[in-house]
Amino acid sequence: MSMTSANSDPTASGTPAIRPLVAPRDIRAIARDLGYSPDWNWSWENYKNTIVALTNEYGLRDHLEIGGGRDPVFQPPELVRHGIKVTINDISQKELDLAPPEFAKLCCDIASPSTIDAIGRNRFDFAYCSMVMEHVPDVAQMWRNIHGLLAPGGAALSFFPTLFAPPFVANQLMPEALSRAVLHTLFPDRRDDGGNPKFPAHYNYCRGSEAVIVPLLKEIGFREIVVLPFYGYSYFHKLPGLRQIDDAFTRLARSRDWRTFTSFAFVIARK
Ligand SMILES: C[S@@+](CC[C@H](N)C(=O)[O-])C[C@H]1O[C@@H](n2cnc3c(N)ncnc32)[C@H](O)[C@@H]1O
Question: Which of 135, 223, 225, 235 is the least buried, fewest Cβ under 10 Å from its Cβ?
Fold first, then answer.
């Protein structure tokens, strides 16, 4: 992994131009340069852009997409375009079988105590996941494993829904069958058991506050840990009345940065 970038472009006279070494930007600067906004739409629109920006900044070529399942972030032609190799992990072989055949695949529980021994230490430059952490009952073990799987200088990014956004609190409190039924009613085209299954959610460590996850990641050995909070969602958009009340509360929470009521977060850290 390259950690610095030096440019020595030839000048018109043919003499190489000597430029100072450019220190890589830190994670916050990368997010700022991508136009970070705490609006939830930004998180969905920029998850992939953030992966690409971190990849290029820190020279992260060998990726592990955790819980990538049937729908990995990158399409096969993009691997060549970005100069990366991506291994897709999932706990479900059925999901991996539905993913494009061009990817390397690793079927295992990312949070199992045997995962590092099974995969090997320092194997990847970059590990990331979207909408997976909330399904993992032991998130501390998941991050310990990610730390072990990453090479020194590597990075990790997790994008996940957070408590105590009301829809996710409801999802956690409701019996699984009821939350499935509600989801299917509100979003009939988004999730069904044949096409897109709904996975049980635990929300372990799924908070938008640094106070919850930073001490854990520091203890594990990560550095430069950044939490990017997001506010808002579309779950109540079809429910007039509730929608307006919820929108007003979301605006207030966002303007005051009340981390208790974030809806999503990125956690980004480096080994
Ligand atoms: C909600 S889906 C998200 C899929 C994909 N990342 C996306 O954003 O569309 C959750 C995925 O995580 C996988 N998963 C759940 N627990 C896991 C674990 N402990 N280890 C690896 N994968 C897991 C599920 O099988 C499923 O494919």
Answer: 223
Would you say residue 8 has pLDDT above 80? no
Q: Name the residue at shortest CA distance from atom 14 of ligand 1.
A: 67
Look at the domain 27-162+203-233+262-270 and name its fold: Rossmann fold (3.40.50)
Q: Which residues sit with their C-beta closer than 6 Å to ligand 1?
A: 66-69, 71, 89-92, 95, 109-111, 129-132, 135-136, 199
* Separation of alpha carbons 136 and 145, rounded Å: 13
C-alpha radius of gyration, the chain, whole number: 20
| Cα atoms in the Cβ-side hemisphere of radius 13 Å centred on 202 | 9
Is the pLDDT assigned to residue 58 strictly greater than 70?
Answer: yes
**Can you give the pLDDT at residue 267?**
98
Specify the residue with its C-alpha closest to ligand 1, atom 13: 67
Distance 18 CA to ligand 1 centre (A): 47
pTM flag (> 0.85): yes
Higher pLDDT, residue 156 or 182: 156
Neighbouring-strand partners of residue 66: none
The H or E element containing residue 204 is: none
Task: Evaluate if residue 67 carries a pLDDT over 90.
Answer: yes
Q: How far is CA 210 from the centre of its chain?
A: 16
Distance 75 CA to ligand 1 centre (A): 17
